[in-house]
Amino acid sequence: MRNDDSIQAPDLSRRGFLQGTLLGTLSLAVGANGVIGVIGVIGRAHADDDAPKKYGADSMPGGTVSDPLVFVSIGADGTVTIVAHRAEMGTGVRTSLPMVVADEMEANWDRVKVVQAEANETRYGNQNVDGSRSVRHFLMPMRRVGAAARQMLEAAAAARWAVPVGEVRAQRHEVVHLPTGRRLPYGELAADAARQPVPADGTLKLKTPDQFRYIGKDRVRMVDLEAIGKGQATYGMDVRLPGMVYAVVARPPVVGGKARAVRAEKALAIPGVLKVVEIPPFSGAPAFQPLGGVAVVARNTWAAMQGRAALEIDWDDGPNAGYDSAAYRGTLEAAARKPGKVVRNEGDAPAAWNKSAEAQRYAAEYYVPHLAHASMEPPVATVRVSGKSAEVWTSIQNPVAAQTAVAKRLKLEPKDVRVNVLLLGGGFGRKSKPDFVDEAAIVAQAMPGTPVKLVWTREDDIHHDYLHTVSVERLEAVVGKDGRPQTWLHRSAAPTIGSLFTQGAKGQQLFESGMSAINMPYRIPNVRVETAEVEAHARIGWFRSVANIPHAFAAQCFIAELAHRAGKDHKQFALDLIGPARKIDPRTMADTWNYTESPERYPYDTGRLRDVIEAAARGARWGRKLPRGHGLGLAFCYSFMSYTATVVEVAVNDKGEVQVVAVDMAMDCGPQINPERIRAQMEGGAIMGLSLALTSEISFEKGRVKQSNFHDYEVLRHHASPRVIRTHLVNGSHDTPPGGVGEPPVPPVAPALCNAIFAATGKRIRSLPVRTVA
Amino acid sequence: MARLQLNGQIKEVDVPGDTPLLWVLRDELGMTGTKFGCGMALCGACTVHMDGSPIRACITAVSAADGHAITTIEGVEADRVGRAVQKAWVENNVAQCGYCQAGQIMSAVSLLKATPAPNERQIDEAMSGNICRCGTYPRIRAAIKQAAGDLAKGGK
Q: In angstroms, rounded to a whole number, what is the distance separating the alpha carbons of residues B145 and B151?
């Protein structure tokens, strides 16, 4: 492995707040959750009501830790080492959270070194980088870490000078005695500071926002930025260990299938091929279990691929052999057209519909296909099994899930499985699941002492992803004489992520409905939200912004359609529906999930929603006269405790080809820690949203994914990318609690695009991907 | 046995001649800056230069590279255009996850060598073979323009 300090995990035996000081006893505990259901949101959707409800970070395995002795060490040379305990997949969190610590402790960023934590939630707090939670849950713990470290340095300096601590102040990597101007640099104070008691939470003096040096200032670039540009950053794919061998796996082409017969002679005859190892098929619900199949191990990746191509396998396709996405669309449509399970009800929308005249009724159905994450780095993991322990090197969003899976597989204690976290070449939710690490553990178990790097090819990634669900959303409204809806029915028919964990689970769970279906804030007297019970025939997983994608696509197009029907400006119509600025308790919308956050701390704030709509509209100069063939479309969304609105400008030519001219995206995510990285997420979210809206689709035939690589699973490329993406950050007050950043930019993009296409052409597109306008 | 002129150094590797250059670089020579993304010349993550022109290492047999000058991301710093592009990449904070950026930089460097002041269409043509799933395209475009400007002003 390349000797690269930037990705080395901290060495626990040597680390200390200062050199020579050993940290408290390291106690490892198995997470309360096993490998199955390790994702908190699943479990909590139906949490039992007896226990006092925990919210936010407190509801996550490991909770939060804000002990400076865990996160900060200072060398005698003044180098401040800060642990990044969350994995980096491109959001910048490996920079932003350590930067928060540095700011609060008055460390100079150019004297800071960031080290990546290994998997250990007992020590560091929750490490599952998913759900746009990193800053949301760890802003305040990291501020407390920094403040505590600063106060310990100040206490040490005051003791050295024998002066009251009120007379000293930490600033810019040194402590100053204010009356005399004497100074002591951090390096000289490190040993004494370590002997100071860690200040109790109640005695911490956090900075006021006007004192921030880095938070919100855009003075800090990503720690890996230069290494990335030089090809020196180390991703999971880049791990190299002495004696390492390489593996690829032939997996059943259909989920739930298995190998009936395997002939490996030809594979073993390929030069460089060392071994074949059977991966057992999974039992019960798929969860994070490997799909099964046959691994080919070789002395390099290419030989392993050649060996796999030479395997002769007779597959039993199993129960999903008939899965066909065209036929399944019919199943979803049929389900969406009959009553489903009611998850929210006010008034009586069905009765009002039945009583209404045909001319008052408006209904529409929207389709979003399966999507693959297709992170540029396919899944990859390296595992070495040595006697009673194992070591893992991988790029994963949830390192503890990998630790748990490997420990279970190898019948080891989790503490005996060390998981080193490398940079992720994208994740988008795919790399929350440790199935690929488990596969590597199975192969490594068959080759004790030998490190095995198990690589997924792009074809593996597209064929065997945990796909975004496929959905038909049906919306119905009875429209009053003023054009306003008197009823709102939203019925969602989509296989649930719950089917990953419970065999045969049907119907979306609350955490899915809670993403832009149930929490509909419009002032409409009769509201009903339903989910239809449909079966899953593929592995359904989290894809950046999850169920918000189909729900917001449908609801945001539907509002535009209602506005058009009423002959009103879409933006004004939407603002009228939203109504005045107010804070809505999500429980009054039957949303008891609320992204696991407290309903008091995180109400649905329609004022903040209105503000982002206005900001995006202003940015795009909503209402301006446009050239022929151009159109502006608006959409907005509240997700992951952040408010987003997007205006897309398109140009559609006579051939129906869509060009995205510009995107305006506004977001209110509460306090802005690293605005430049927030804008990067907004730009990237716009492009990922346009990818799924314009070109991406996974479809099935005979149980098999039809697409295989980027020629048929198309994603947005340079030439199709908008030249102009204007980002508008709204609010930013540290008085509001932090919201998510990674996912919220995605959901409003597809509906804004389709609303823009309608504005440009009069053609309403309700089925993704758009490709061209017929 | 193939003999590569790799970033100005001669490297001999003993692999079957049909082995893609990508896997020779990564697995045999330990040069992991060149990335695997698709294996079919569809994503550009493995872009390197052969005699100055961009090629996809994932579909280039090592025998076809034998005797040619190969430049990878690890060697691009030796070059004035390469340095200007890398600097512009940093100053524009282009990368998100960063995995595709080595390939993006290699494509951008060869674009600017052939076309010092590219227009929008030329940028599209040179860069559309390089996928970025994080969506850094607008910043890549800005960085290319900045590097072109810096080079025109005589930056080194």
A: 10
